[in-house]
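Re: that chain you flagged

S.,

Sorry for the slow reply, it's been a week of failed gels. I finally had a moment to sit down with the sequence you sent. For the record, here it is as I used it:
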Amino acid sequence: MIPFVKDIQFEYGRCDQVSPLIRRVIANNPGPFTFTGTGTYIVGRGEVAVIDPGPDMAEHLDAILAAIAGETVTAIVITHHHIDHSPLAMPLKARTGAPIYGCALKSPAGAGDSGEAGHDGAYQPDIDVCGGGARISGPGWTLEAIATPGHTSNHICYALLEEQAVFTGDHIMGWSTTVITPPDGDMTAYMESLALIRARDFAALWPTHGPPVHEVGPFIDAYAAHRRQREAQVLGVLAVGPARIADMVPKLYADVDPRLHPAAARSMLAHTIDLTHRGKVVCDGAPGPDSLYRLA
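Prediction finished late last night. Pasting the structure tokens below so you have them in one place:
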């Protein structure tokens, strides 16, 4: 059982100091994939970084600019290209002159159906941090890019070294599991990058949606165990006989909001692709959403 963290105190448009180096402004775009909305983080004082400015909403841009009045934005930092994370980067750049850091899509695969919020087709960072390891710094703060593909192929988390914390975008969220949507999403890559974050022994996770996670190790362990449990459930269904994803989703996600079943089907596709690549499951032809799967 994942120990979800859902309690969050906020008002839309208000800037809250949530740690010694972190402020947060939440956009008014709540929904089944965004929880209470996009949490835009401001790191530092005087010379600051803005992480995931969010959807292209004029009122949210105004709230960010009000929060940083009298300060200088030296970096606009993006975790990935979904429309609840990156579109406001360009308007914020136009107002501040700050460069955009992130990882561009390397192929058109990421422009397909995300199964959730949708893609920002105009997203293009000025400074590429795709491989991880790049550092972005200001007075009293240092961000380190960590490549965390899985939710998307270009997902980046950012460690705040001074607080032993990490901004996890949609890679790890306290209130929900993460959608993995092929072809851009990849379950094999996701599990590997989840282990990478686990190994860093961070003191806090700051997702773009929802409250922070402070019991980091047990939370990530439960997150990974949940994925392995889903995998075992898929194998259990297939042990009874061949099945398609459309047959499995209502059984395995009976306790999930039906609005999320299409996204669940995409995550299940990610599992079946992973299981096929690992030789545990087979199907005729390449694994796809309508394939008939059976145990190897």
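What I noticed first: Residues 15-214 form a domain with the Metallo-beta-lactamase; Chain A fold (CATH 3.60.15.10).

Talk soon,
D.
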